[in-house]
């Protein structure tokens, strides 16, 4: 792989005569993608699939990258794999021809109201293993504001029942997030009474598992969330990120400071956290316009 990247670097410099900044940007995007592949257990970039490309772009969005950054990364990968095909390293590019990324200003998903959150969290019927598991997942998601990848990456030993917290890890660092009592109760019941009935392999470390006893997937949680959205009759478009944004906005509305929210969200740059103040300000402006007698 290093030979391929080195050859591509020479191609950009000598054939395309790209600027030093352009070459540096392309190679950085490719190396970051390669590191992500290694993290998911796929060290050979030449075995990249269309699903890998789509998942990586989703990962960048979940990391809070702007539309322009995601679009640039896609362009870097498209050019790199086109080169790999043209030089015989690959038979076909894994980048879908019709894939598109909006370069416009990043727009946050809709935020749920407090009543909508309560309605959503009340949907799982705790009458069987699936209901208890789903209840625990939704409660933990809203209690912590985790990214969906962080949620499904949780291991059983990341939970500290005594402290009432979970340890969340991502590629950069880890953080400890407290759980409110209802979330801790749902999670404790799941761990003690439900998870053992789903997991037959004692070496399985995943906290949240599917009915087969394997780690829950992003797609699996997405389907769970959409199912309960429909069951609750909530018309807003809800994604796993909607719960993350709702968590942030609700904390700000109730007096949380930006520095603390940044730590809880796992943002490396506080500018990412500041985006939520716009949603709070928009809501206050809407309330003002509706309620002030002179508005």
This entry's quaternary arrangement is single chain
Let me know the largest β-sheet: 3 strands, antiparallel
Identify the overall geometry.
globular
The neighbouring-strand order within the major sheet is: 1-2-3
Helix/strand structural class: mainly alpha
How many domains? The number is 2
What is the helix/strand order? Answer: HHHHHHHEEEHHHHH
Query: Poorly predicted ranges (pLDDT <50, ≥5 residues)?
Result: none
CATH superfamily grouping of the largest domain? Intergrase catalytic core
Give average pLDDT, whole number.
Answer: 87
CATH class of the largest domain: Mainly Alpha
Distance between the termini: 63 Å
Number of strands: 3
The percentage of residues in β strands lies in under 5%
Q: What is the CA-atom radius of gyration, in angstroms? A: 22 Å
Written overview of the protein:
The protein has 295 residues and is mostly helical. Helix content is 59%, strand content 4%. A 3-stranded antiparallel β-sheet has the order 1-2-3, with no helix packed on it. Helix 3 packs antiparallel against helix 4 (67-86), helix 6 packs antiparallel against helix 8 (181-198) and helix 11 (258-265) packs across helix 12. It is globular and about 60 Å long. The model has no long low-confidence stretch (mean pLDDT 87).
Task: Note the main attributes of this structure.
three-stranded antiparallel β-sheet, single chain, hpI Integrase, Chain A, 2 domains, DNA polymerase, domain 1, 4% strand, globular, 295 residues, 59% helix, mainly alpha, 3 strands
């Amino acid at each position: 792989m290093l030979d391929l990247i080195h050859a591509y670097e020479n191609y950009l410099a000598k054939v395309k005569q790209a600027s030093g900044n352009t070459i540096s940007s392309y190679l950085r995007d490719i190396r970051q993608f390669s590191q992500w592949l290694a993290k998911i257990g796929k060290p050979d970039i030449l075995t990249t699939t269309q699903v890998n490309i789509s998942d990586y772009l989703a990962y960048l969005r979940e990391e809070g990258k702007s539309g322009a950054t995601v679009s640039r990364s896609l362009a870097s990968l498209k050019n790199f794999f086109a080169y790999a095909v043209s030089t015989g390293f690959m038979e076909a590019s894994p980048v879908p021809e019709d894939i598109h990324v909006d370069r416009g200003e990043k727009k946050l998903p809709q935020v749920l109201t407090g009543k909508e959150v309560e309605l959503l969290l009340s949907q799982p019927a705790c009458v069987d293993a699936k209901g208890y598991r789903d209840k625990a997942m939704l409660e933990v998601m809203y209690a912590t504001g985790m990214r969906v990848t962080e949620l499904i990456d949780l291991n059983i030993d990341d939970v500290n029942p005594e402290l009432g917290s979970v340890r969340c890890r991502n590629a950069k660092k880890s953080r400890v997030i407290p759980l409110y009592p209802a979330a801790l109760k749902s999670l404790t019941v799941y761990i003690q009474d439900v998870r053992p009935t789903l997991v037959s392999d004692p070496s399985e470390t995943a906290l949240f598992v599917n009915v087969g006893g394997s780690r829950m997937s992003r797609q699996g949680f997405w389907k769970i969330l959409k199912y309960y959205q429909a069951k609750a009759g909530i018309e807003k478009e809800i994604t796993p990120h909607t719960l993350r944004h709702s968590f942030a906005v609700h904390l700000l509305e109730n007096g949380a400071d930006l520095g603390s929210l940044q730590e809880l969200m796992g943002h490396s740059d506080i500018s990412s956290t500041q985006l939520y103040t716009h949603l709070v300000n928009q809501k206050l402006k809407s309330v003002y316009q509706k309620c002030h007698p002179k508005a």
